[in-house]
Structures are given as C-alpha cells and as structure tokens.
Amino acid sequence: MRLASGLLCVLFSFVSAKSIFDGSSPHHVQRRDTKPKSNYTGVIGTKLQAFPTWFVSAGSNVTIYCKAHTDRKKYGDKVYLHLTWTNMRPGNRTKKIVASQPASAGITYELNPVTHEHQGVYTCDDNGSLPEVYVLDWHSMLWVEDAPPKASMEVMSHNRSQFFSNEAFTLGCQLPNDNAQWKMMRFNDWTGTVTECPDQVSSDHRLSSTISPVYLDSYRLYWCENPAGDRSNSLNVSIASVTVLESPPLPVMEGEDVMLRCYKRDRKTKEISFSFHTSYYKNNRLIDNSFGRGPFEQEGNFTLKAVTKADEGVYTCKMPEAGGSFESWLSVKARPVEE
Q1: What is the model's pLDDT at position 142?
Q2: For residue 124, which of 106, 104, 105, 142 has the smallest C-alpha distance?
Q3: 8 Å CB contact between 44 and 75
Q4: Domains of the chain, with CATH numbers?
Q5: Among candidates 132, 84, 125, which has minimal Cα distance to 103?
Q6: ω before 213 within 30° of 0 (cis)?
Q7: How far, in Å, CA of 66 to CA of 69, rounded?
Q8: CA distances from 30 to 45, 218, 241, 279, 317 (A)
Q9: What is the enclosing helix (H) or strand (E) of 18?
Q10: pLDDT tens, 207-229?
C-alpha cells in the first residue's frame, strides 16, 4: 500500500530482535496517496521511526517504532501491524516479518546490539486481515556502516544532498582498483524497493549517474555495491518542493569551517533564491536566526567555525515565507595525527 509518514516519540509494547536473527525463533511529511478509498470503510496511517537514527555502526543500539497515527474509525484493535525486514544482500532481497502487534498498541522493536545482519529495508504495514480497511505503509532502510567502505560515493554536481523536484544532479562513485562488477544502487522510500540507478557511466574506476527527481517530499538512499556484498558509503538524497538546505553531504574534517545555506523556490516562477529571514536548527534546537539571535551573514548564510565532533548532528533550516527543509546529517571526522 502507499506510504504515510510522521515521527514517533513514545514507547509501545516491546519485541526482542535477538531471536529473529539468530534463528532461535520458529518519515515529518504527509505522503500522497494514489489509491482510491471509495471502497474502504476506514483508513489507518502509520509511522516508522528509528531511534537514535537509521544510519548506525555495528555494535550500536537501535529501537524501531511502528505505530498507527491516524485511525478515525477506531479499527486499531482489529487491525494488526507488521514490521517487515527485507534483506539487502545483492541477489538475496528476501523478506521476513520480525514483529506483529495490534495497531492500537504499536510495535517497539529493539536491536541490541546492531550487526550487519540487521541492515535492510523495514516496512510498517498491516497483515491484510481486514480488506475493508486501507492501511498506508511506510518504508525506511537501516544502514550499518562498513569500516572502511570499499568505494566512495559523492555528489559531483553540488555541495548538498537536498534538491528540488526536476532539478538534475550527478552522483559519482570512486571504485577500488579491482575487477568486481560494481553497480550504483538506490532505495526508494515511497515503494520500499532497491533498484539500479539509470544510465550509469563507467570511466577510470568511477561510476556516475545524472538524475532528475520527480517525487516530492521523499528521500532516496544511494550507494555502490558489487556481487560479493562490498559497498561504498551511502548518500541520503531528499527531494523537496519549496525549501532545501545546503550542507556538506560527506564528512568534514575537524577544524574546517562549514557553511549552511537555505534555498527557496517560487511555486509559480520556479526561481531559486535565498532569504535574510532564515532560521537554522541543530537536532531541532534553534542555533541561529536573522532577527538578532545568533550570527548573521550575507544572504542569510550561517557558518560553523572550526567544527568539532560536538557540531555533528541533524541540521535543518526554515524560512517564514517558505517553510522548513528536510533534515541533513553533518558528520565530522577526526583530523589525522601528524607524526
């Protein structure tokens, strides 16, 4: 079914992940909905969230929440939600239901600790037991970082990972000097599918692909992989209609200055511009706005001076006349020690 989205901050009934994977057991945006509802007696919207994040390292602790956030006809006690995990190994995209609870209770699913076996696509959906109730599903990918990755993924055309619909951008993947058959892949959070990127060009141990996104208020995850399961780092690309945040899509070095910039696009003329009336947020807390609180720079930019690991986090921007951007994760890496 189609997707809904939102955030979940509360705890529900707990399910342990350990028995599922060791073999001992027998999105803040309202998504569009293209499926007609005239034949349904009720509609349930779902939420899917990972705390602290969907992008983790092996050994971390992650909790995944799946719940119903809209249920006007009160079908929550009759409809069961499923949390489904899809393996993302090349050529082996198998699915497994890892937890199930009534929609009225919701699912809290703990991964403690996370391993590479847990990575994959997670879907919050129903079991189809009440065909007259339409449940909007939600997909997200849990990415467990490889250390170090075998290939390097980057945005070649821009210094950002947020784009407007129909704004073309080019991704590149620097490959190791081997004979493996590397491919550039993408995850679509609307459909929960993993597919190859279109029109890939290979040259001098590099793959590239130019993309003109269509879907609004969505994100796609991009990476490179080979048949042996080796991967690059991942890039999370968001597609918006009005407001985007410019921030480095790849990790920056400690001590560097990082500039944040907010763009807006006119709904009618499609003209892209800046705004002096821009607020910036880190982890949902205001860090600057142009009304006298915090640094003010030309064209509404905000610069983080000499960044440290303390500056690492989720950043957003907001304009009164255009609304807020998607989230962008700023990663800070340690500067090499000089001998």
Answers
A1: 93
A2: 106
A3: yes
A4: 14-145 (2.60.40.10), 152-240 (2.60.40.10), 243-333 (2.60.40.10)
A5: 125
A6: no
A7: 10
A8: 10, 10, 13, 23, 19
A9: helix 18-21
A10: 999 988 766 666 689 999 998 88
